[in-house]
Write a structure and sequence with these properties.
Blueprint: H1 14-29, E1 34-39, E2 42-47, E3 55-60, E4 68-74, E5 77-83, E6 112-117, H2 120-133, H3 135-144, E7 148-152, E8 158-160
Antiparallel strand pairs: 1-2, 2-5, 3-4, 5-6, 6-7, 7-8
Length: 169
């Protein structure tokens, strides 16, 4: 594959590449009874934990970093979060790395979106898209795409897909 750029441009494939790497690693480990891959907070839980139960994944509170807003019980799925607290601007904390395509400004209305999906690539992409869409539209988008998720607003209000209840501890 070859790409020719006619103007200076920065391509950041970090999120896509990380999800793909997780999924490829999970594919290689799929013969094991249980494994957990954690690549910078993007997680794939395969099989069962050493106690023979699904893996328990904690979801960080986007405002109280020492607290969890949820715990998911997961096996054979990825859990990925997009949050405004990651890569926030030192000058203005409201500025972060998840941008609205229409205006290039930081997406507002959501502090974090956590998605459970069959692959890390899907979970990460869906979490970012749902973040940009906002809590209500984002949750509807996740449902339409066969994923489950939890959106937390900056004020702590929770929005979740109906299927998320099956993962909550």
């Amino acid at each position: 594959c070859e790409v020719t750029l006619r103007k200076p441009l920065t391509l950041d494939l970090g999120a896509i590449a990380k999800g793909l790497a997780i999924d490829l690693a999970a594919q290689e480990l799929s013969g094991l009874d249980g494994f957990l891959i954690n690549a910078g907070g993007d997680i794939y839980a395969g099989g069962m934990n050493p106690d023979g139960h699904p893996w328990v994944i904690g979801v960080r509170d986007p405002r109280e970093f020492d607290s969890l807003v949820a715990r998911f019980s997961v096996s054979g799925a990825a859990v990925c979060t997009s949050g405004d607290y990651e890569r926030a601007s030192a000058v203005n904390p409201a500025d972060h790395h998840i941008l609205q395509p229409a205006n290039g400004r930081a997406a507002a209305g959501v502090a974090s979106v956590t998605v459970v999906a069959p692959t890390a690539m899907a979970a990460d992409a869906l979490a970012t898209a749902a973040f940009v869409l906002g809590p209500r539209e984002g949750i509807a988008f996740l449902e339409a795409n066969g994923a489950d998720g939890l959106a937390i607003t900056p004020t702590g209000e929770r929005f979740e897909t109906p299927g998320l209840k099956g993962y909550l501890e």
